[in-house]
């Protein structure tokens, strides 16, 4: 287990990944939440691709899996990673 995993192991949620998807023009992809998840306020709910890391899954693979699940593509290059948690 990594130091980050050890520090947060007691918390009631699993480790997650988040993706900032940029195109060559520097535009950011942000998806509108589905109404079934956020109710009638869906037009005001936006987010970047993110989700939980499955047990035994590499965080990079989890990032590409979540990207594909939420945007339909895996065509991306990782250009940077954060060393730990962001909030």
Keywords:
87 residues, alpha+beta, Nucleoside Triphosphate Pyrophosphohydrolase, two-stranded antiparallel ribbon, two-stranded antiparallel sheet, 3 helices, 26% helix, globular
Walk me through the structure:
The two termini are 21 Å apart. The strands form two sheets. The chain has a two-stranded antiparallel ribbon with strand order 1-4. The longest helix is centred in the C-terminal third of the chain and has 13 residues, at 59-71. It is globular, with a radius of gyration of 14 Å. It has 87 residues and is an alpha+beta fold. The protein is built from three helices and four strands. It has a single domain (3-71), classed as Alpha-Beta Complex (Nucleoside Triphosphate Pyrophosphohydrolase), CATH 3.90.79.
Main sheet record: 2 strands, antiparallel
Number of strands: 4
The overall number of domains is 1
Radius of gyration over all CA atoms, rounded: 14 Å
Note the topology.
Elements: H1 3-8, E1 16-18, E2 31-32, H2 35-38, E3 46-47, E4 50-52, H3 59-71
Antiparallel strand pairs: 1-4, 2-3
Quick structural overview:
This protein has 87 residues and is an alpha+beta fold.
